[in-house]
Amino acid sequence: MTVTADAVVIGGGVMGTSILYNLVSRGVQNPVLLERTTLGAGSTGRSSGAIRMHYSTTVNAALAWESLKTYENFDEVIGGDDVGFVRTGYMVFVPGNALDGLKHNIGLQQDVGIDTQIVSREDARELAPAFQQYDDEAFAWEPRSGHADPSGVGLAYATRARELGATVLLETPATSVEIDNGRVVAVITDGERYATNTAVVATGPWSKTFLNGIGIDLPLEATRHEVFLLKRNLEELPFHPGGADMGNMTYFRPEGADLTLVGNGNREENADPNNYSQRPSMDYLEDVWLRLSKRLPGIAGAEFFTGYAGLYTSTPDLHPVIDKVDGIEGLYICTGFSGHGFKLAPAVGTVMAELMLEGSAKTVDITPLRMNRFERGETNTTSYDFKVIA
Questions:
Q1: Are residues 202 and 232 in the same domain?
Q2: Is 0.90 topped by the overall pTM?
Q3: Model confidence pLDDT, tens digit, residues 231-257
């Protein structure tokens, strides 16, 4: 059976749902989203949920800054359910030998318009007294950063999109994109053929396999990453901001009234998205907890609460691919966020809709995210790689 759609979004994570909402809110009449299982079942549902803007390239910083504006006012900008945005502030700790990199990043971020600055040791202690400081360190502070509920964001986008006329289909995996004479003509599932001239691949960790099936080879890898939550003793550690600790290689944020979420963005292993361990590893727990306690001494007496593993879709330069496919009219790719997708999702939905409907992105220049940059040797490079920040 053939069903007609003005556009088909493949993938029901926070990227797919943001794109769907932005398409229908801009007048696309009957867009369809196809999700293989349930909304947010891939990377979105296992995100750390952190929202911050400390990046070392303009494109990522700008996408994060535009996204923060939505997260801060989600009910007004998008509408629908509360997505649980909590402002905590975010502190970045950098060893003294990386001060030049920090200055570069802060200058770049301030040029974008981000509310961030390098702060003195005294100011850092006043802003975050629970943190241990080391000699010869530098500190940066983002007062407006925080965290939100990734699954809630995806659901809110999908709900609002449905209200505006979009169709969201669960348990409906796309199997291929039908291409005829160099243009998209349909998206195929096991039971239906969705006739369309526009398709977006936003399939997260499954992107490499799905794109290979239609003859597109991108350097994408699904990698497994763990986080865990500790229950704090509130007498010892009542509160702390979010942060990234380059010296001890951890990132962390508060959760609820008495929990701390912690992870380490530098421990990676390739994974099969259809078959990987979603449980935390005890050696990882011991290692990261010890390093966190060097920065947050009050966390040493906490209790293990829970932990989980999720998947990143990583590229060689840790930047996503957001582009139209040369040679296949009507085909677009949105993947490879390397652990940063949730932070960027609202702006990504906006620029993708602009690219599809207007021919180019207006809100943020996404030229550095084109798909041919890898073969052309034009990958994104930075003076100091803050890869630990997830």
A1: no
A2: yes
A3: 999 999 999 999 999 999 999 999 999
